[in-house]
Every structure is written in structure tokens, then in C-alpha cells.
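Hey, I was hoping to borrow your eyes for a little while. I've dropped the whole record in just underneath, so have a look:

——
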Amino acid sequence: MISVQNLTKSYRNGFSRTFVLRRVDLEVQEGEFVTIQGPSGAGKTTLLHILGLLDEPTDGTYHFQGEPTHEMTEDRRTEIHRSQIGFVFQNYHLIDDLTVYENLETPLIYKGLSGSEREGKVADMLDRFNLVAKQDLFPSQLSGGQQQLVGVARALIIEPRVILADEPTGNLQSRQSEQIMETLRRLSTEDDVTIVQVTHSETQARYGDRIVELADGRVVDDSPVRAEEAAR
């Protein structure tokens, strides 16, 4: 599903070059749930953005479902991003002048669904995340936790093949966090949805199959979550 080889991301800084990622190798199979961890500045979010086709590497290769992303046209990259990848942003990235309902409906419009199909899917997500009473509110009228729930619902509504989540439960109460993590795990185990999450939480990391540790832009460890450590 995801294959990264010798991936490097750097920026020119005067006469020097600053490296964010250095020769990263990563393989993620279909339906696998992978957690990326590491200290601040390790390159976690940059890697997630490259996997989500929101950024491009300076060097190295990235194949998405066997297709080399460096050979994709911009239209092809946009098509994949809109139809196959659900992104949960740490800072929500909701559209401020759209209601909760409209924020959830927007990716379905891009996907080309009919009005009745959109209505049904939005209603399902509002119900699943207990947001029915909030559907006519704007993001500024919601708490941080509520905005996070809308962000998760928006990522799931297109029924993506890949979910990329940057601290997906960072602003949620423990009960809501468990609900989101259980939902992600079910999508992985029952629907073969591939999930890559970035989190500082050891508890949430144990919902996945593997933990990849980044430090100074390099992969320093890639280990399976042992059965006795898995979240239950």
C-alpha cells in the first residue's frame, strides 16, 4: 500500500541545508495500523504530509498502491488525496465559514456524490459522533474536542483506503479518545483500511500493529506491538 525508500526532506538555509528527514525507509501493508513516534522535531508530521501527498520529498521515492508519486500529475495527486486518503489534522483545518454539516459534506461534493448520497452519509457521521445537535454550528462555536470529532468524522466520511492521523485524539476526553481509537482499530481489522498515526500517547500507540520511532529525521526503531501490550 505504502512504500518509502531513502526518503529525504531538506530545506536550503543560506549556504547550508537543514534536514528534516534522512533516508527514511518504510513499508506499510494494506490494513496495517502503524504508529509513528519520536521527539518534537523528529520529522513525524513532515513524513505524514508526504504520505498524504501534501508535500514532496527532496530525494528518495514514495509509491502509493504501487504507483510512483514522483511521476504523478498534480491532478492525479489531488484525485488520490480527495478520494482515497482521509487526513486528521492536529489543528482540525475545518473551514471556518461552513457549518459542521457543510464541513462534513464538502469532501463528498469533491468526490462527486449525489445530494441524497451526501445527505445519508453526513447523517450517519453526525449520529455516530453525537454531533446531530451541533450540525448547524460553525467551528468557532465548538470546543476544541468537538472540532476534533468533526475533523475525524470528515476524514472517515469518504470511506478512504488510507487514514493519516496527526495526534487524532489530542483534544478529546478519555472516553472520546477510546471511541476514536476503537473506531480506527475496527477500520483496520475489519475493513482493511490502512492507518498511519502520529501520537505521543503510549496508550494510543498500542492500538496499532507496529511502532516506528523517528529521531533526527531517521528511523531508529520499527517494532511490532506485542500482544500483551496491545490496548484492549
In short: The chain is about 35% helix and 30% strand. The radius of gyration is 18 Å. The mean pLDDT is 92. Strands lie at 2-13, 16-28, 33-37, 59-64, 67-68, 85-88, 162-166, 194-198, 210-215, 218-224.
